[in-house]
Design brief:
Length: 201
């Protein structure tokens, strides 16, 4: 076995060092850049519908999405990152707002009329404002009542009947049919409010 002379060994180390240093130096007119793993163009949207109403969700932004989540179910969707205009329909109410989907988001629709107790989520209960009202038919005939406002509702009553409903909070135009005539009035729906109707004059 041949012995490597110290001079040859030094020469070998010098060549290796030269190659390593040269590899780290860019060529003339060549840019220096580093590759890194960037964020994906997609992110997750979790929709947890804890209510007894089907939830409908429209997103309009970098892309358009239409989503349906059944009562008491949770769904996971993959969407393009970005900021969206969202329309949510649940519990008889439809609202519009903004949604930041630059990162993973969780939307929670609690029981109609309540707020979510989960932290770190988008609480749709703050958007969908639902209240309980009572509607009473004091006429001596059957009655049809139509409420048009934040949402549209149609109710029917027997004579002297009283019912409780859950509706979207807000001001309504009320049209009612009873005693062979039609009546109209305004009604502000808030929790515990009663709407009492008789034969239209």
């Amino acid at each position: 076995m041949k012995n490597i002379k110290p001079l040859n060994l030094l020469l070998l180390f010098a060549i290796l060092a030269s190659l390593l240093l040269t590899a780290a130096v860019p060529l003339p007119n060549q840019s220096i850049y580093f590759s890194s793993v960037g964020k994906s163009d997609l992110t997750r949207l979790i929709v947890d519908n804890q209510s007894t109403s089907t939830l409908y969700l429209w997103l309009k932004g970098p892309a358009f999405y239409y989503m349906v989540v059944k009562p008491k179910e949770s769904e996971v969707f993959t969407v393009m990152r970005g900021k969206y205009d969202q329309t949510v329909r649940a519990c008889g109410d439809t609202v519009e707002s903004k949604l930041d989907m630059t990162t993973t988001q969780t939307l929670v629709m609690p029981k109609c009329g309540s707020k979510s107790v989960t932290s770190g989520v988008v609480d749709l209960g703050h958007l969908i404002k639902i209240v309980k009202i009572t509607v009473k038919n004091e006429s001596n005939s059957k009655m049809i009542v139509v409420l048009e406002g934040p949402a549209t509702y149609v109710f029917s009553f027997d004579k002297d009947q009283k019912k409780t409903y859950t509706v979207a909070k807000g001001t309504y135009n009320v049209t009612y049919y009873a005693c062979g005539r039609t009546g109209e009035r305004k009604f502000s729906a808030f929790h515990g409010k009663e709407l009492t109707l008789d034969c239209p004059k």
